[in-house]
Amino acid sequence: MTRRAFVPLLSLSLDESAAEPLFRQLYGQLREAILSGRLPGGQRLPSSRLLAGELACSRNTVVGAFEQLLAEGYLEGRRGSGTYVSSVLPDELLTARGLPAPVPETAPAPQLGRRGRRLAALTRPGERTRGGGTAFVPGLPDLAAFPFDVWGRLLGRFWRHPPERLARHGDTAGYLPLRRAVADYLGAVRALRVEPEQVFVTSGAQHAVDLAARLLLDPGDRVWLEDPGYVGLRGPLVAAGAEPVPLPVDGEGLSVAAGRAADGAAGCSGRLAIVSPSHQYPLGVVMSLARRLELLAWAREAGAWIIEDDYDSEFRYGGRPLAALQGLDAGGGRVVYLGSFSKVLFPSLRLGYLVVPPALVEPFRTARAALDDHPALTVQPALAAFIAEGHFAAHVRRMRALYQARQQALLAAAERHLDGLLLLRPDEAGMHLVAELAPDLAARITDREASERACAAGLIAPPLSAYRFGEAGPLRQGLLLGYAAVPEERMGEAVARLARALA
Prior knowledge:
The protein is of the alpha/beta class.
């Protein structure tokens, strides 16, 4: 049975056959009428007795609805006068009811600080294409090949019925079993001398650089950077107020001689150098042993620090990698080592690690507690088990073979379709190749224009020039072609499409 009543400006209807209680039906209809403005502020409502009579329902039904609306601030009672729609509604309803006030045309633009303006102006190659296709995104792993079934079981093991300690505040440096697993892995695979206490879990490379820059740098300190280099460094360094010193990368890695010359011209020494010696990003150069020792000697002489970004050392297809800088720095304590799991496993994992010299352990712990307390514990136990139980090593072995085959497929397809357009050379490591513009193409367009053409064809190929920090060396024109996420059977079609876009 349906009961109807007419209140000023609206009608009400109660349905006895509905599952929802009658007082909730009445409450909802009156609330919606107030929100929509059909019952304006100050409107007097009929008495509960009168409305109950019109609706042919119990007076308790009406009283229950009125009491709920009074408690939530939609109605107000006036002694001796009755019940009215509130003139001032709850704060959250003001946005729902009305439009935001227009901003006066003369309102001044919001003022950012100098660092804020520099941060807001930063761009990242390929940023606008995030979430799109997979060809040829640099650094994107093959997500279809990741063992998510194993990963799901590990997550369930720890979080289906979590021990109370996991739900409490975690260790400032991160989940201890994960730090132990990372220390064991680095000792076995990269010959690092590291104790679990030196490992700090981060949300990735940028977070690690940001934390290190906050502790090791003062505003105005000079930082040596590879040019071209990883653009994710720009934000943390701008936030720290550092002065970037772009240095050229030759066949042996970052030029220490150019850095010394730049310091001499400036009259002060660099405070920090950030390098990727195992596989320079984006050029792929492996820093020679002589250059590594030269860089370490500079750090000791200048009292400077080195951040070693070992971002994809897992994917090496030929020969053995040279020893990490951290392992060569015998007793020096000048190297901060960082790595990330995002390229090895999957990007949204957002987990990495920082290995600091023993003398920096306590300062880093104290600063970390002051800045962000501790990293989220949600996936750390699963990752620790993933490494300790051998799944990580098995996954890396599978991906190494898969990515090597895909690099070969890219080179073969480039030989068929890109002759006279792009020049590609094989690389013994990594997840992308640098494709330099052939002379004829470079005479007609820049690499940024080539990247735009690729984007218009649904391909993501960032320009090499976008990774420049300054004018540290000759301007090379090329595209970064990531191959790790492109199946071999689709590689030829993707390369052919790129060729059509550039021709």
